Amino acid sequence: MTIDTPRKGLSTFDLKMIGIILMFIDHIHQMFVPFGAPDWLDWFGRPVATLFFFVSVVGFSHTHSKKKYMSRLYISMVLMTFFTFILEKLIGYDQVVLMNNIFRDLFIGTLMMFAIDLFVDGKHTSNLKKILAGIGLFLLPILLSLLVPLLMSSPMIVENRLAFLAISALVPMLLLAENNVMVLLIPLLYLARNNRRIQCLMIALVAAVYFFLGSTQWMMVFAIVPILLYNGQKGKGMKYFFYIFYPAHIAILYLLSAFLFAH
To answer: Which residues does UniProt call coiled coil (predicted)?
Structure first.
């Protein structure tokens, strides 16, 4: 029996932990802005989405069941939407708005990766239905985004927040994603999953766009450092840790901020 010896560099577990720590610091800034939290705390969060996008590409590429992987993210996306809505309603803390739902970004990304697989399989087997299904599935979150202005302009939907909440919770619209069009980086990273240098070049190019737009999101470029150090190993298992930690730490920080503000 052979035992895999750890390689030098960072494992998938390490990348997740780096992302979680940076995300936590970023959310401290988000929740404590009413108390004058310094803007530089927000800088720590700029590489986070990119790290999680990269990890999702790795996870989707190696999972035993891509449909189960997607199902977990979809259920988490829906639950997170209702969770933040209920939390805001119960606490009534208007100083902080909860728009956090990385699960939406990751689900849309996996949907597009699944669409790429479907398209490639269709090309290899000359199956027109699969080719068309792949194209349709890839475009779906983009096309569904066209519903956003229609929903926002509908008096019936605007007046009934629960109706908008239900639609936004269940329907994977790209424009409602926390990182918006930056989510398209996920399928790009997936296409280049066998070439780390090209992946890092893509990240650098997207960062350059944000730099010229004057957005601090250009700091996502620093995600390249741990990604280049990735050794291809899974590391310690933490399959469900993030699914629990993500909503839990947001709730704790939000409740603490609301409590301190009230007192």
So the answer is: none
pLDDT tens digits for range 41-89:
999 999 999 999 999 999 999 998 999 999 999 999 999 999 999 999 9
pLDDT tens digits, one per residue of 108-127: 999 999 999 999 999 999 99
SS3 35: helix
Burial 6-19 (b: 16+ CB within 10 A, else e): eeeebbbbbbbbbb
Where do the domains of the chain lie? 12-31+39-257
Structure tokens, 63:
């999972």
Residues in CB range of 20: below 8 A, 6 or more apart? 242, 245
Query: DSSP for 182-240?
Result: GGGHHHHHHHTTT-HHHHHHHHHHHHHHHHHTT-GGGGGGGGHHHHHTB-S---S--TT
